[in-house]
Amino acid sequence: MEERQSLSSFMKEFFGYDTFKGEQEQIINHVIEGGNAFVLMPTGGGKSLCYQLPALVMDGTAIVISPLIALMKNQVDAIRGFVSSNEGIAHFLNSSLNKAQIAEVREDLLKGVTKLLYVAPESLTKAENIELLKEIKISFYAVDEAHCISEWGHDFRPEYRRIRAIVDEIQQAPIIALTATATPKVQSDILKNLGIQDAAIFKSSFNRPNLYYEVRDKVEPEKDIIRFIKQNPGKSGIIYCLSRKKVEEMAQLLVINGISALPYHAGLDAKTRTDNQDAFLMEEASVIVATIAFGMGIDKPDVRFVIHYDIPKSIEGYYQETGRAGRDGLEGRCITYYSYKDIRKFEKFMQGKPVSEQEIGRQLLMETVAYAESGECRRKLLLNYFGEDYPKDNCGCCDNCVNPKPHFDGRKEMLLVIDLILSLPEHFKIEHLACILAGVQNALIKSYEHDKLSFFGAGKEHSDKFWCTVMHQGLIRHLLAKDIESYGLISVTDEGLAFKRNPYEVMLTEDRVFSEGTADDEDDEEAAAEKAAMRGGGGGDPVLLSMLKDLRKDMSRKLKLQPWIIFPDPALEDMSIMYPLTIDELKSCQGVGEGKAHKFGEPFVELIKRWVEENEIVRPDDFMVKSIASKSADKIYIIQCIDRRMDLEDIAEAKGLDFDELLSEIENIVEFGTKLNLDYYISANIDEEVIEEIYSYFKDEAESGDLKEAIEALGPDYEEIEVRLVRLKFLCEVAN
Q1: pLDDT: which is higher, 415 or 515
Q2: Cα within 13 Å of Cα(656), Cβ side
Q3: pLDDT of residue 85
Q4: Which of 308, 353, 637, 695 would suit a FRET pair with 619, their CA atoms being 20 to 30 Å apart?
Q5: Distances (CA, A) of 605 to 331, 546, 598, 612
Q6: Which of 624, 662, 702, 560 minimizes the C-alpha distance to 258?
Q7: Does 531 have pLDDT greater than 70?
Q8: What is the DSSP letter of 30?
Q9: Distance between CA atoms of 239 and 248, rounded to whole angstroms?
Q10: Distant-in-sequence, close-in-space partners of 735: CB < 8 Å, separation ≥ 6
Q11: Domains in the chain, please, with CATH?
């Protein structure tokens, strides 16, 4: 009893907590007593304390092996803040340190003042570090993110496989392995590889009751994300993207839409990453946009939403990343955008890897697909994946439970699946069995001659996807089992055999249907941009459009400007669709730049405001999303060069363009509302008289800004390049 009180007093002294969470106290006691331990505790469950507290009360230094450099700094800062003014009490040793910093760590270790040393696995294997650690007393080793040991884990790191050998070389001490996500197979791999099969197992429930799980169709996800964030002002969130490029684009898109966001990925230099992380922790930025591949080592309790722009490659990755939401037990929204196009992208990335690695990757990916497309309770699906049963039929806190899909009694379908599996002399994967029942011909079916079975096409009234759904739900109900070691071969359990003997009602859920997704591959981006640029031409409010055109005509008379100069037709069409009520909203319409909106916009906004009020019009709520003017680095380079008054010929040469191509790029930039000053080049290359005559045509005669019409109207006395350049000057000075 005294020992327990003593531990509680340490807890209060160091961390300020009165009570332990879950099994924390048992785990800490076990480590202090010198036992090996395996701790499976979801994100937010208090894993860190399980090694931090024993490290502080035991003799020697605890070695914490972690793959996340960002988390090391975060935790060292936290320990120093909790414990004392002695900064030497906790250190990290990784590639981010310079020689002077490494010398400081070494000195504190040898003095015996350091109780916790965080080490990256790569640093642990360096000869000079092994020799240093041989000179100090080690209290125990803590292997954090231990799932990295297993090829079946979502973040396999080969260097984690060497930990046991390095520990044996340095000195023997107890090992505590900790992870937030591990299937039974991964757990077995961890214990075996670390040589701690005798470890005490401490498992917490994977259920995070405060998290709301939702999978959305990936159609215009950027607009959806911006709308969601604006509906949740002041809340902290993380957005995960697959690529560094998408991280940068998304962060930029959020910023131009008035959201304080910063990027975070491995391609940024260490200082920028640290600064961005600190800005997020200090709430100077409300949103951080990060790559999935680069682990976010951020211990922030009040992250209110985690958004996956790209679906993760495994359920474990998904669970760990969503687990960063609501670590304080309060609100946490987990929104994932899904399209099968992303899955095909992952499969493409896997090509060229060893066959066994491809098999593992594909199986993990198919679990993700099943989760995303399922109409079942998401909490039930997640817990089942980690070997835990969720007793309720409706969790009330996921999209499938809040908006349930129709149910049907699937006992007949389940029996057909079981009969098929039992009839086959060998075991097969879900996809293969589904193809047999749906009557789908493919090379594998033919090679096994399964197209000759009586079961082939026995369920052809349904698709192979439907039969996959039935089998996934059979796994959840323990009627079927999956052999992980054999890459997912399906068999019938004893419960399944009992069901066959005495069938009972099995209420199954229809799967959800998703679209293919939006153009998001790099080679699709230009096409997507072109489609966006061509938006308009129908679908708006015809009466309002007519009123807007009348207003434009009146203004053109008063201002003595051609109507198209004020706003082109596509801009008016956008206004009739989106009903902008402020100048800021007006800028979201096609062909309306900052200058033009302020110069001509007020009467149009007032007209639209009156029309909306008088007719009680419900406006679309996604029109406020401003797009990045150009995703091309070339365009940014061109703008910067013109700002520096470089000759256009030099710019063209630098970018490998001919002059005509460069002019097309500049026209594209200007027509999207960017104002450029080309006077320095135009006045040096075109006679003043020619400039005035072409300028006068666009100001007084042109019925539109169309270049072909202008060249025809002006006649052969003017070079095409002269017309194009002066047109650009006119657009920048008058229209933009």
Answers
A1: 415
A2: 1
A3: 62
A4: 308
A5: 38, 15, 11, 10
A6: 624
A7: no
A8: H
A9: 11
A10: 565, 596, 705
A11: 2-203 (3.40.50.300), 211-401 (3.40.50.300), 405-509 (1.10.10.10), 535-615 (1.10.150.80), 633-735 (1.10.10.1390)
Separation of alpha carbons 665 and 658, rounded Å: 11
Closest to 23 in 3D by CA, of 198, 195, 176: 176
Q: 535: closest CA among 627, 605, 670?
A: 627
SS3 label, residue 56: helix
Of 442-451, 562-571, 722-731, give the lowest mean pLDDT range.
562-571
Kindly tell me the sign of the dihedral angle through the C-alpha atoms of 147, 153, 159, 161.
positive
Map tokens 């209060």 to a residue.
12
CB 686 within 8 A of CB 725: yes
pLDDT of residue 536: 35
Residue 151 vs residue 655, higher pLDDT: 655
- Contact at 8 Å (CB) between 670 and 732? yes
Least confident of 270-274, 539-543, 561-565: 539-543
The amino acid occupying position 164 is R
Query: Residue 411: which pLDDT band, with cuts at 50, 70 and 90?
Result: very high
| Sign for the pseudo-dihedral over CA of 532, 536, 537, 538 | positive
CA angle 65, 68, 70 (to 5 degrees): 125
Return d(Cα 94, Cα 102) in angstroms, integer.
9
Task: For 270-400, list the strands marked E by DSSP.
Answer: 287-291, 303-308, 332-338
pLDDT in tens, 21-55: 888 999 999 999 999 999 998 766 688 889 999 99
pLDDT given for residue 537 in this prediction: 37
Could you give the CA distance from residue 721 to residue 698 in angstroms, rounded to a whole number?
15
In the DSSP assignment, the letter for residue 733 is I
Relative orientation angle of helices 720-730 and 707-714, to the nearest 10 degrees = 120
**Greatest C-alpha distance within the chain:** 102
Per DSSP, the residues of 472-538 read HHHHHTTSEEEETTTTSEEEE-HHHHHHHHS----EEEPPP--------SHHHHHHHHHHHHT--SS
Q: State the pLDDT at residue 539.
A: 52
